[in-house]
Design brief:
The complex is a heterodimer of chains A (about 160) and B (about 425). Chain A has about 160 residues and is an alpha+beta fold. Chain A contains four helices and eight strands; from the N terminus they run αβαββββααβββ. The chains are: A alpha+beta (about 160), B mainly beta (about 425).
């Protein structure tokens, strides 16, 4: 993909928004409007950038976590990613997928024989979390909802 | 956070050029498997500072849990009711340089320890997020002893008590709680990482920037509260009277898969004759994250790499980039057809740089015998951070310096090896 074009798109598409919190359902798999509910709950600031394939709604939470929600042209949040000293509210961010995530983590525990980065790989849900105290990184996405031509590596 | 590929290539080129010429800050020590000299306590040393640590299948192996650990380092701690000789030694405690503070399962604790309370007398309970889970439980106080070192009135977390059964939803929203031996696979976690406390300044402030790790829990229910630095769950090493600037971890090399291996957790850096830095290279870490930089296969983990005895393998990238397939059943481990010999370049925030050689074997084969607890070439995917887990420590002497503490190699936080 042409990085110059993306960078240009990012520059041109940068809009800073500060909107009062709304109460809307969230998030992964939901409409882009749910991003605002996430922002409200995380008490963060929202910045939107976009390229040809998707828009990135970036929330900087009040606890210093950078959260990104990737929104397809169809207006759906197909991926979320975060990095920072703590986890964001994952129930809010993963929305309807949170319970599946928790079940998958619990199912993996005994198989795992120890602790290490989490990789949940299911049809319709990928979750990857790594890090340690004061430095966490995570990503969750729904492969079936990814716009054509988007590489997973971009989702961070 | 990671740089784009073009930038990576440039960085690698620069790194290679540096290594080829000046050998920036310590040079490209490949640090291949050499067995460190066994530590000794020289006669007349002021404080015995060597604690045995063992890689074995851990306390969850066997009934009823039967989840034998692989690549976990365990030790024991002695806890006493503060100011008394009422004490208990708990074994099967996981040694973790990826966290700070001691956490103990209530099922392993027979002592009745004093509960920490705030100025209103409300009990303090903690929700500590790990990667994929949280630990929930009260903050209590104990006198801790390891080797000849003592941490008096140490705030610790007790996990899985019946006292505070209602986990606040804000805590459960960070991941599923680990409350017992079957979930945690250890009797406790001894966090001896780069940080002196588990939270730090963020938990001392009121309002939305408080990450919500500490709760006050009167009978009416729990709510997030502030917690002073000194009241937070502390890295015990930071509270020792001496040898309190960090630790040195030594393990002999491991060949393939072995039932167990015993190493040493030595307290202090450059404080006694057995914990000098010697020829080790200091890799300074970011004071906020505890991370340094690793460059591997054209990808730069900029300020996104760390050494962690609490992770049970080498974890990096994923199959789409490495080309290494994950195992069919164990999707969190790599399963290459043949053992792969790899190398990466680590770089400290101080500019120190060095090459690390490591191997990734077939996890199905390496872990086939569940009695083999020490495995040298275990690895798996981690597209976020580069996680140099316990196998990195085999055959090495690795120093972990605590933030703000001075050592002969400079102030922490840093790693050295």
């Amino acid at each position: 993909m042409n990085r110059t074009a993306i960078m240009l798109g990012v520059l041109l598409g940068t809009i800073a928004l500060l909107i009062s919190p709304l109460s809307l359902p969230a998030s992964l798999g939901s409409d882009s409007a749910s991003v605002e509910a996430d922002r409200g709950k995380m008490e963060g600031t929202l910045q939107i950038t976009s390229n040809d394939s998707y828009a990135v709604h970036q929330i900087q939470t009040s606890t210093g976590v950078a959260v990104k929600e990737f929104v397809s042209p169809a207006g759906k949040v197909f991926a979320v990613a975060w990095q920072g000293p703590f986890h964001p509210d994952l129930h809010q961010l993963l929305g309807a997928y949170y319970d599946r995530y928790v079940q998958a983590v619990q199912a993996q525990r005994t198989k795992r024989r120890g602790h290490g980065p989490m990789v949940i790989q299911q049809p319709g849900l990928i979750v990857q979390i790594s890090g340690h105290s004061r430095s966490f990184w995570g990503r969750a996405y729904v492969p079936e909802m990814m716009p054509a031509g988007v590489h997973v590596e971009e989702l961070r | 956070m990671r740089r784009v590929r073009f930038r990576d290539s440039l960085l690698i080129f620069i790194a290679a050029a540096f290594l080829a010429t000046a050998g920036c800050g310590g040079g490209g020590s490949s640090a291949s498997a050499t067995t460190p000299t066994p530590p000794t306590n020289p006669g007349g040393s002021p404080t015995p500072n060597v604690q045995a640590i063992t890689v074995n299948t851990g306390p969850a192996a066997g009934p009823p849990t039967n989840a034998p650990y692989v690549d976990g380092a365990f030790t024991s701690v002695t806890l006493c009711v503060p100011g008394t000789t009422t004490c208990q030694t708990i074994d099967g405690i996981l040694v973790d340089t990826g966290s700070s503070g001691l956490r103990v399962l209530s099922s392993a604790l027979t002592l009745s320890l004093p509960q920490q309370a705030d100025s209103s007398g409300d009990p303090i309970v903690e929700c500590l997020p790990f990667l994929d889970s949280v630990t929930w439980g009260p903050v209590q106080t104990a006198d801790l002893t390891m080797a000849g070192e003592h941490a008096k009135s140490l705030p610790i977390q007790v996990i899985g008590t019946s006292s505070f059964p209602a986990i606040p939803s804000a805590c459960k929203n960070l991941g599923p709680p680990e409350e017992d031996l079957s979930g945690l696979a250890t009797n406790g976690i001894l966090g001896i990482g780069n940080f002196a406390q588990d939270c730090g300044a963020a938990c001392t402030v009121t309002g939305s920037s408080n990450p919500g790790l500490y709760y006050k829990c009167p009978s009416s229910g729990c709510e997030v509260t502030t917690e002073s630095i000194s009241s937070q769950v502390q890295n015990p090493v930071a509270l020792f009277a001496t040898d309190n600037n960090g630790v040195l971890i030594q393990f002999p090399a491991v060949s393939g898969a072995e039932p167990s291996v015993t190493g040493s957790l030595i307290f202090g850096i450059g404080t006694q004759s057995n914990n000098g830095l010697g020829g080790a290279t200091v890799y300074a870490a970011d004071p906020n994250t505890g991370n340094f930089t690793t460059v591997f296969k054209g990808v730069t983990y900029q300020d996104d790499a760390f050494l962690d005895t609490g992770s049970n393998g080498f974890y990096f990238l994923d199959s789409s980039i490495t080309g290494i397939p994950t195992c069919t059943n164990f999707t969190f481990w790599y399963c290459p057809a043949n053992t792969l010999n790899l190398s990466a370049v680590n770089q400290g925030t101080n500019g120190a740089m060095g090459t690390v050689k490591f191997s990734i074997g077939n996890a199905d084969t390496l872990t086939a015998n569940v009695n083999d607890a020490a495995v040298s070439a275990l690895g798996g995917p981690s597209p976020g951070l580069f996680d140099w887990g316990l196998p990195f420590f085999f055959g090495r002497s690795v120093y972990v310096a605590i933030e703000g503490r001075s050592t002969p190699g400079g102030s922490g936080p840093y790693y050295a090896y």
